[in-house]
Amino acid sequence: QVQLVESGGGLVQAGGSLRLSCAASGRTFSIYAMAWFRQAPGKEREFVAAIDSSGGRTYYADSVKGRFTISRDNAKNTMYLQMNSLKPEDTAVYYCAADRRPFRVVSGLIDESEVSRWGQGTQVTVSS
Fold first, then answer.
1. Mean pLDDT by groups of 10 residues along the chain of 128 residues
2. CB neighbours of residue 68 within 10 Å
3. Which residues, including other chains, have CB under 8 Å from residue 58's CB and lie 6 or more apart?
4. Beta strands, E only, the chain
5. Residues facing 10 on adjacent strands
């Protein structure tokens, strides 16, 4: 089973950028569908972005389309989330997620029940 470790979170001003990384252990990273979810204080965890095992297909929540870019480097066992034009409402703990099966996408969203592996999360705080 793959183990996931996020990094790259921090404090940034509105309009700024951050890049999150998710490093995966194990030799089977390339077969996993990967995703980012986030959870803001007092709210449920929500889908942010996903990428298929080859990196050829990506999905985004409407709230981040055009601002965030998900990518992966299977040679480095790492997934990324480039976040630009950050807003205070992007403040949340961001979680890396994975599953050996392709995610089911319903109305452009991926439910967290599709995920079998989670990272520990990294805090992103956007100040106004």
1. 94 98 90 96 96 95 98 96 98 97 92 95 97
2. 21
3. 49, 50, 51, 52, 70
4. 4-7, 10-13, 18-24, 33-39, 46-51, 58-60, 68-73, 78-83, 92-99, 117-118, 122-127
5. 124
